[in-house]
Amino acid sequence: MSEKKAAGGLQGVVAGQSAISTVGVGGIGLNYRGYDINDLAYKCSFEEVTYLLLKGHLPNQQQLNELKTLIWQKRQIPCKLKQILETLPKESHPMDIMRTVASIAGILEPETKPGQEYEISIRLISLFGPALLYWHHYSNSGIKINENTGKDSIAENFLKLYHLKSEIDPLVVKTFDVSLILYAEHDFAASTFAARVTVSTLSDFYSGITTAIGTLRGPLHGGANEAAMQYLEPLRSIPQAGQFLNSRYQSKQLIMGFGHRVYKKEDPRSPIIKDFSLQLSKTANGDPTLLAVSQHIEKRMIEEKKIYPNLDFYSASAYKQCGVPTPMFTAIFVISRMTGWGGHIIEQRSNNKIDETCFRLHWACQEIICTNRNEKQCQFMIMYYQNKYNNINVQVGQLNCQSIRVFHISLSEKDDRSC
Ligand code: COA
């Protein structure tokens, strides 16, 4: 009788508790602060999601305007950083540039007192793209770009700076924006866990982020979108895609962009980014062959291996059709996940222990935790909150005598927030 393989790496290790997102309860679904990923992707902007993850609730119009102004101001690249970027070789990997930008920012603008996490998060979210593209254009063609494109969104600013154009197709901007939303947060993913470990030693915010960037880089984590594009690029027909799959099966190599530790069926983010990638493939600058090949690989992987695409698979074709070069894919992930890392560092530092004696409501986190009560009392608490907050739909995620976790709150008609 064959023995079950021992879990490798951190598989099965309970890393901690977090109220920032809920990933794959029962193997499905993803929520940020209680909001379903589909609602967020189709109805919100990345800036709104940034606010949600860092502050715990969606912004109202005024808060959103303030955030947009802050992002615009924090886009400015310090002169000393520009000088350093100009010395970095053009052969550098964009992930090395991102890690270096976080490090240099930590020297030039260090964290000096408690409570700066939100400001530093916004600084890095705003700075990463312009700094990467400053290095890119300078090292490749000697051009010193002006990072300030007005109050554009992070997505539009990135695309304008990369393409050096003043107008970008709105579908390309929306696709890029949606990808930033989808990559923003994923509970205790390896890079997030790494950031939390670093700051738990009372190290500074920037050290947490450099740790996270280094961890994200690996092809089993963030690097999978880049690795997926590398094998997709040369496949220009269905027979070629078939041959590629057969040879990978034979050599028992992984197909990057497939499989997930938590989602045993569909990654809920995959159909969203696939939708945008398909839309792009039907435009003048789209690549229908790339989509046909991708869909063929997806179909066979599901039929023959029962392994489903994760977010990285269709992100590869989406980014490609946005005109972004493959080595930048994981660096874009950094810009996005900076929001989740920031939220987790704030949460880690807040030392949020669950109250031992009674229930409490984390309204900001849309989570109810009820402890040390029997099941009947817990049921009562759920009914109480359902009545009290009648503009939300509450689903109970987990119930036993000691804890109740509400994991899903959907947007309703009565919700007057800006989303
Ligand atoms: N391609 C081919 N086979 C795969 C596969 C993939 N992408 N993902 C899993 N498998 C296979 C494994 O080889 C293993 O086969 P075995 O039982 O014969 O040894 C089986 O499926 C289970 O694999 P396991 O590593 O236990 O799956 P997991 O769910 O723990 O691992 C990942 C999840 C993400 C590490 C894994 O799917 C993977 O490496 N994917 C590719 C990298 C990737 O896309 N990463 C981004 C994740 S969001």
Automatic annotation (TrEMBL):
Source organism, top-level taxon: Eukaryota
UniProt GO cellular component terms: mitochondrial matrix
GO BP terms in the entry: carbohydrate metabolic process; propionate metabolic process, methylcitrate cycle; tricarboxylic acid cycle
GO molecular function: 2-methylcitrate synthase activity
A Pfam family of this chain: Citrate_synt
Pathway involvement of the protein, from the record: Carbohydrate metabolism; tricarboxylic acid cycle; isocitrate from oxaloacetate: step 1/2
Alphabetical keyword list: Transferase, Tricarboxylic acid cycle
Catalytic residues (UniProt): 260, 312
Family, as annotated: Belongs to the citrate synthase family.
The protein, known as: Citrate synthase
Organism of origin: Paramecium tetraurelia
